[in-house]
Amino acid sequence: MPELLARAGLAGPQDLLLFTAAVFVLNATPGVDLLLTVTRTLQGGVRAGIAAALGINAGCVVHTLAAAFGLAALLAVSATAFALVKWAGAAYLLWLAVAMWREAWAGRAPAATGAGAAARGLAVDFRAGLLTNVLNPKVVLFFLAFLPQFIRPQTPDKTTAFLLLGAVFVLQSTLFLAAVVALAARARRVAMPARLARWLQGLGGVVFAGLAVRLALAPNGKA
Q1: pTM to 2 decimals?
Q2: Where are the domains of the chain?
């Protein structure tokens, strides 16, 4: 363990504890990832929520690799690259919002019948989690700004340090979102009137649309 902490740039268990505490606070802060996980669990159940959570954390793996190998630095210095990713992310969030509004208007909840349909539904949920995370340039820049704070300047192998800290981040995020899915699933078991379910779905669409607008209006190159 001491050798592993040293390779990650951490002096000891106290630094690791500080890092995990910071990650917990970040995970618990309401945002797109948390909202998507709760929404998909309420709509599609535990499997849908877990699929979305796994997609989100697959996105975190991408961000970790980008930060470790310097790809995230491109977004930090290139306004054009930042703008392209930003507009793609905003468009995808808006697409999710429109899909939720359509389902609320039609009065239907997502449902899959048969193993093939269920597998396709889980793939869609996984993709939704992955894309909402990857196509958010603020998350890219966040990883670039957050992880180095826990890496000491004298650390000899900073790439390995990025990867190790990123692995801790992804593991903790996965466990946190799994707990969120469990709580949302318990709430889902409470009988909910169809009209209320439609209103909640429509409200979720409003929130996603608001997040899309907020991302689109964010200044280029600013986290």
Answers
A1: 0.71
A2: 2-76+108-192
